[in-house]
Design goal:
Structural class: alpha+beta
Number of helices: 4
Shape: globular
Largest sheet: 8 strands, mixed
Bound molecules: zinc ion
Radius of gyration: 16 Å
Number of strands: 8
């Protein structure tokens, strides 16, 4: 058995396909890595070498702040697995919100999906409206979590 498990197993078992937020086709199986001491140069699923890939991630921050950060992730082409390190994401979010809305640093957040690079670049020059972000959002194919050791 591999190390990865679907994060929302019960939802995954529903007969209907999961509700999509983004209007674009889903991309990537996604893992948010909570461990600072694991950087996944090796894929946890197939044990092949992962690549570094910079990807614009769309993140919903409570209560109502979708933001996009261009994030270096680990990527396994064989598994189509994208791995983002939680501590790095939180660092980038804190840096972003320290200018914009410091009272919201540390709020709950959820990584929703990815944007194409050209859309992300447009958003840097002129922040995207929420509706526009949803138009261009690629949901994840699947969101995964690491099985606790020994399971
Ligand atoms: Zn792999």
């Amino acid at each position: 058995m591999g190390l990865l498990a679907p994060l929302r197993q019960q939802q995954a078992q529903l007969p209907r396909p999961p509700k999509r937020l983004g209007k674009q086709s889903p991309r990537y199986r996604f893992l948010l890595n909570p461990y600072r001491d694991r950087r996944f140069a090796i894929c946890p699923d197939c044990e092949g070498r992962t690549l570094l890939r910079k990807v614009p991630l769309v993140i919903h921050v409570d209560p109502l702040n979708p933001v996009v950060i261009n994030k270096s992730c680990r990527y396994c082409p064989a598994c189509d697995l994208l791995i983002a390190h939680q501590d790095e994401i939180e660092q980038q979010l804190a840096a972003l919100f320290s200018k914009r809305a410091p009272e919201q640093i540390g709020n709950d957040y959820l990584v929703l999906g990815t944007l194409d690079r050209d859309v992300w670049k447009r958003g840097v020059a002129q922040p995207l409206a929420i509706q526009e972000m949803v138009e261009h959002l690629h949901d994840f194919v699947e969101v995964l979590e690491l099985r606790p050791a020994g399971m």
